[in-house]
Amino acid sequence: MLRELVEFLRIPSVSTLPAHDADCRRAAEWVAAELRRLGCREVAFLASDVHPVVWGVGPDVPGAPTLLIYGHYDVQPPDPLGEWVTPPFEPTVRDGKLFARGSADDKGQVFCLLRAIAAAGRPPVNLRFLIEGEEEYGSRVLFDLLRREPERTRADAVLIADMAYVAPRWPAVYTALRGLCYAEISVRTAQSDLHSGEFGGAAPNAHEELVRLLGRLKRPDGKINIPGLYAAVKRPSRAELAAWRKLPFREADFLKQRVRAKRLTGLKGHSVLERLWALPTFEIHGIMGGFTSDGAKTVIPAAATAKVSLRLVPNQKLKTVERQLAAAVKRLAPKYVSASVKFMHGADPAQVRITHPAFRLLDQAFREVVGRGTVPVRAGGSIPVVPALGRSGAPVILTGIGLPDDRLHAPNEKLDLKQLWDGINVFRRFYELLGRGNADARS
Amino acid sequence: MLRELVEFLRIPSVSTLPAHDADCRRAAEWVAAELRRLGCREVAFLASDVHPVVWGVGPDVPGAPTLLIYGHYDVQPPDPLGEWVTPPFEPTVRDGKLFARGSADDKGQVFCLLRAIAAAGRPPVNLRFLIEGEEEYGSRVLFDLLRREPERTRADAVLIADMAYVAPRWPAVYTALRGLCYAEISVRTAQSDLHSGEFGGAAPNAHEELVRLLGRLKRPDGKINIPGLYAAVKRPSRAELAAWRKLPFREADFLKQRVRAKRLTGLKGHSVLERLWALPTFEIHGIMGGFTSDGAKTVIPAAATAKVSLRLVPNQKLKTVERQLAAAVKRLAPKYVSASVKFMHGADPAQVRITHPAFRLLDQAFREVVGRGTVPVRAGGSIPVVPALGRSGAPVILTGIGLPDDRLHAPNEKLDLKQLWDGINVFRRFYELLGRGNADARS
């Protein structure tokens, strides 16, 4: 079974890099072949030739509830390559952990959900599958598809395993995800690059202007300096904040073992979990322009661009934040600088009520297999398409078999194999419980 | 003749990029072949196999003065490539101008000096040549050579044509050059890159810290915020400032035709020429780290590096400025950020007294050929090795045939062919005047 997962992980399906388009297509074909093996009576590539959404319809089980399984076969770029102990697309087991880009986010978890079906024999549920290839790039293709064909999400429940336990041996179910606003901020100060000997002292420098602008967009105390940004932010309830304080989360361990920095940063007066789960962020991802090759070039850059993103929280709206960021950039740039913002992709934040009976069944499955039920938490990350998947009214069950130290999006991403084997048993049991004709589980 | 220059310019001898080492060697060989054609009794590659200094000794002319000709065969990197109308290493004539990287800085001018020798027949001067291949990268090889073998600079005068007229039809002689301090400022905030969903709001971001640090190193009003930096700066004399006001320099034209920006920037209370020639600068050239490929990656970078440089003016010292920059970076970085400065290359500023009789002869040559003598000015750029070339006491004649709009170090660098043909006649005449046994011209 491990060999088959390794084969899936070997495919460098980096959706955000056009050079990997063919690899994304190969990963989609791998998923389609799996679905056929599971007896799906319909398997189709939808909406895109490059990053197709893999659609599957399992065997018909009259009278049984319908479960829609969502996942993604695309992965984040692997750089910086130099920091991987073993190459990102040569999956390697060390100390019971499988190291590879996509091992936890999300190929390994998709694999877990699918193998749990095989393990259950043919589980007594009507299965639907939407396994997409653009989750790391904004899910545009799937968004468009669901707008045109909302009936694809008609189900009694939606299951997503793209998350992690909140701590080892503490399975979790997620009540909220942050949204995302990914943008490029560009400045131009002159028509072309200039020689710093000839012009230095009198000519504007695009990098200097960009750096000053970015420095003003977020204050040293962590406050994002975008007018109106915090207006829609809904603070978690007292009960929720109190529950978070009881979680097995120690700030010192988080700093030392996971962030591995000298200090945590962020907005004062809020706990770490609140900063991670319930407050917006502004991050600079990279800065382009000027001279960045080896060696030295004494150029005054005429243009510079920063890749940045904000994470959004309930009840912020992507469209509003885009307007606010564009206005802030315009306001902060001096008159002699042409500044612009290009929006790359994004997602509204998501909130999920966990009152539906299916959540009780998942809790039971974890309790039986792992020895502890699911604790409700939030996530700092984003799965752009979650709100759209829940639009038909079906509960979206956000859970997963990852661990907090899986290093998603970073070098040396990994999946603990024990989590994988446990996970297969958990979801096998969940499918069985759901299909046992539990009337509550049907809408 | 043009065809031969084109052949020289075709060689992409970018000294700062290791990928072009073989090209640098080819350019050195081109120069050596030229020197042999001029009858040099000694031609040698000195000090480096990769970027050799080409040394030449012309025919012996007993009793005649000795002139050392300095130039460089290396060029700046050509990026951004997309902004060149024709490719940088496919020299093209348009409208009487030869467009190519190195056409003005400095291959075209080296060509001019050498062809003027041929044009003079065998001029009655003892010629020495030091044509180096690391001028754009700090001249380290030549520095070391001159420290070991200072006798190479023994001459009655040193001639450098790496400069420009101060305006069309206004030949110039240069009394000062700015120095250079090229460095990489690096910050590290964590052991490896982190996922902005998982960690955003609580983890430090290397780009954010670098951007804030760079923003503090120079204030919006142009003042460089490095303690002690301005202490050694010697203001130009009243007479010099008054002379600059009489030069054919119009701020509005400089902005519109050359800088091509919306506004000039820089330290208030100083004229543009003072800012360009007599004040230090701080420029950001590029920023590395994080994610800068196509597409989107939601990473919190753990490390970031900026390429920066300062131009230095009399009487600043490179070593002192390096210490000051390192101290300022250390002081400005928060405690939880590891910040460091790596010094890449540099040069002390240079000052030249123009009282030696050879300057009069150059003035006369320009007057005869171009119709106007040389006006004394300064330059904002740097030729790192100038102080070392003058250490034996010989006057360093800094002049050239470029024009202010040649776009050195930038896309679409060019040389006006009229300037080249005039220049050949000017230097031919200068060699003749110098060699006419003018006793004053000998030390």
Give a quick summary of the entry.
With 443 residues, chain A is an alpha+beta fold.
Question: Mind explaining what this structure looks like?
Answer:
- Chain A is α+β, with helices and mostly antiparallel strands and 443 residues long.
- Chain A has helices at 2-9, 21-37, 107-119, 140-148, 196-199, 206-217, 238-245, 251-259, 272-277, 318-332, 357-370, 386-389, 417-435, and strands at residues 42-46, 53-57, 66-72, 92-94, 97-99, 126-132, 157-161, 172-177, 179-188, 194-195, 281-288, 299-300, 303-312, 338-347, 350-351, 375-379, 396-399, 414-416.
- In chain A, the strands form five sheets. Chain A has a six-stranded mixed sheet, sandwiched between helices.
- In chain A, a hairpin with a 6-residue loop joins strand 1 (42-46) and strand 2.
- The longest helix of chain A is centred in the C-terminal third of the chain and has 19 residues, at 417-435.
- The two termini of chain A are 35 Å apart.
- The mean pLDDT of chain A is 95.
- At the A-B interface, strand 10, helix 5, helix 6, helix 8 and helix 9 of A face strand 10, helix 5, helix 6, helix 8 and helix 9 of B.
